[in-house]
Amino acid sequence: MASKYLAAIKEIYKSYETAKGFCKFASGCRVLSVSEGHVKVEMDVTEELLNPPGTLHGGCTATLVDIVTTTALMATERAHPGVSVDLIVSYLAAAHPGETIVIDASVLRAGRTLAYTRADVFRKKDNLLIATAQHTKAFPASKQK
Fold this sequence. Notes:
This protein is an alpha+beta fold. It has a single domain, classed as Thiol Ester Dehydrase, Chain A (Roll), CATH 3.10.129.10. Strands 1-2-4-5-6-3 form a six-stranded antiparallel sheet, with helices on one face. One of its GO terms (molecular function) is fatty acyl-CoA hydrolase activity. One of its GO terms (cellular component) is nucleus. It is found in: Cytoplasm, Cytoskeleton, Spindle; Cytoplasm, Cytosol; Mitochondrion; Nucleus.
């Protein structure tokens, strides 16, 4: 798991423990590996993350993909989170309370103004692919005053 980005990425996930906003539930993420443009985390599916039928909520899955693909961007020389342009998630199977999911995210290409990332979400116990996603991020020019 050793990489020059490991400490910085772990610090990002640690900051979610005291977050006051929407990303607070990501405090349950545990970093499994970090390398250049790649982050893999795992998280237990808890009652707070469920939809009415009792499985992992799709909005939670999308938010986790957003967070983990963004930290994959932070594990690059640019180390800039960018802003979301689009996020496409395909839901393939369900995750249930008590199960552990693994989110594996990587940067496909990062250019001057756009970055393209992808993520796969697996159920840990049987490696079943439960979601796959593409996330495009932009690096807008700074506005000078």
